[in-house]
Amino acid sequence: MKRISVITFALAIAVLISGVAHSVDRWDNTITVSPNVLVPGYINDRLTVHTNIMASDVVKSSLYLEVDGQGRIEPLLTYTDSTGHIAAKFDFETVYSYAVPPCAVIVMYGTFTNGEDFSGEDIVDVK
After folding, report:
1. Residue 108 near residue 117, CB atoms below 8 Å
2. What are residue 42's phi and psi, to 5 degrees?
3. Confidence bin at 69 (pLDDT 50/70/90)
4. Neighbours of 53 (CB within 10 A)
5. How many whole angstroms separate alpha carbon 88 and alpha carbon 25?
6. What is the reported pTM?
7. Cα separation, 116 vs 16, whole angstroms
């Protein structure tokens, strides 16, 4: 009987932890910057930011970037990627002009359709 109670308790804890982890993931707004290394003379003139935020939840016109706390860089283009998440393209040279080697913190800010603000950040290498 004790063995069943221990197993039941362990399963209950596992379910509780997975539920907490899921709720944290749901509200953890992250971005991925591409390229993840900024170098002068980059062959593409765009820097792309992908998110884990559903595009339908975002006011597209609210998006902008800051690099190391500097600038308010507006996107050249916002779009919905193949997974339904919001993505945006920014002018590479503008982003690079704010970046200081050896690395830069890039933060994208925006507003959800319900009026709440959000942000997500990524750290990229700078050459």
Report:
1. no
2. -50, 135
3. very high
4. 20
5. 21
6. 0.76
7. 27
Residue located via tokens 């902008």? 64
pLDDT digits (tens, 9 = 90+) for 47-57: 999 999 999 99
CA contacts within 13 A on the Cβ side of 127: 8
The kind and range of the H/E element at 47 are strand 46-54
User: What span, in angstroms and rounded, lies between the C-alpha atoms of 101 and 95?
Assistant: 13
The number of residues making up the chain comes to: 127
Compute the Cα dihedral for 103, 105, 108, 114 and give only its sign.
Answer: positive
Mark residue 93 as left, alpha or beta (left: phi above 0; alpha: psi -120 to 50; beta: remaining). alpha
Please give the backbone phi and psi of residue 59, each rounded to the nearest 5 degrees, phi first.
Answer: -80, 105
Question: What is the separation of C-alpha 16 from the centre of its chain, rounded to a whole number of angstroms?
Answer: 26
